[in-house]
């Protein structure tokens, strides 16, 4: 059985072929209006769940074959809830499905936690993101243009550059001391003239 699913109001159409072991399962669907990924569902047998032991990996079938439009790819990505709560992720994330691939879509899950994790039929195990791709032509040259970064990579920009230093606390200004009122003494010359006049008065009284 082949069906087509829309990728939005103005999006491409993707043909989907259901395999026998996936016929009673719903097609991948967006879980919110603006979601980027369709949820992929495990197409395991009802009575045979799969247990991923700590450190183990397994290829989980979805029961679907896609026919992507030329110029598009499908990316298989982990579900954040499984990764956060159970340490289960897509090992080759993001897995790439090419437009000319006609095999079953399978999800390579790995258990990075310390406890076993059981996967049952019908569980949402990964996300499928349809994205346009750009094909290029490689041109061999003798030299490349230089940049300030050069060949620096793998953490060459460091970690501290992304951290903001805490603001420095400003010290409160010290209160200005009030000047004590002082009595101005008369000029020395005035003192001398006063003492001379007193001497003259004393001489007159003696005569």
Summarize the structure.
The chain is of the alpha+beta class.
Q: Helix- and strand-based class? A: alpha+beta
Report on the biggest sheet: 5 strands, antiparallel
What is the CATH topology assignment of the domain at 2-132? Deoxyuridine 5'-Triphosphate Nucleotidohydrolase, Chain A
CATH architecture of the domain at 2-132: Distorted Sandwich
Beginning-to-end CA distance, first to last residue: 150 Å
Instruction: Determine the oligomeric state from the structure.
Output: single chain
The helix tally amounts to 2
Helix content: 10-25%
Percent of residues in beta strands? 25-35%
| Adjacency order of strands in the biggest sheet | 1-2-5-9-7
Mean pLDDT: 85
What series of H and E elements makes up the topology? EEEEEEHEEEEEH
Poorly predicted ranges (pLDDT <50, ≥5 residues)? Answer: none
- CATH uppermost class of the domain at 2-132: Mainly Beta
Broad shape: elongated
How many DSSP-defined strands? 11
How large is the radius of gyration? 43 Å
**CATH homologous superfamily heading of the domain at 2-132:** Deoxyuridine triphosphatase (dUTPase)
Can you describe what's shown?
The protein is α+β, with helices and mostly antiparallel strands and 207 residues long. The chain has a domain of 131 residues: Deoxyuridine triphosphatase (dUTPase) (Deoxyuridine 5'-Triphosphate Nucleotidohydrolase, Chain A). The chain contains two helices and eleven strands; from the N terminus they run E-E-E-E-E-E-H-E-E-E-E-E-H. The strands form three sheets. Strands 1-2-5-9-7 form a five-stranded antiparallel β-sheet. It has a four-stranded antiparallel β-sheet with strand order 3-11-6-8, with no helix packed on it. A hairpin with a 6-residue loop joins strand 1 and strand 2. The longest helix has 19 residues. It is elongated and about 115 Å long. The termini are far apart.
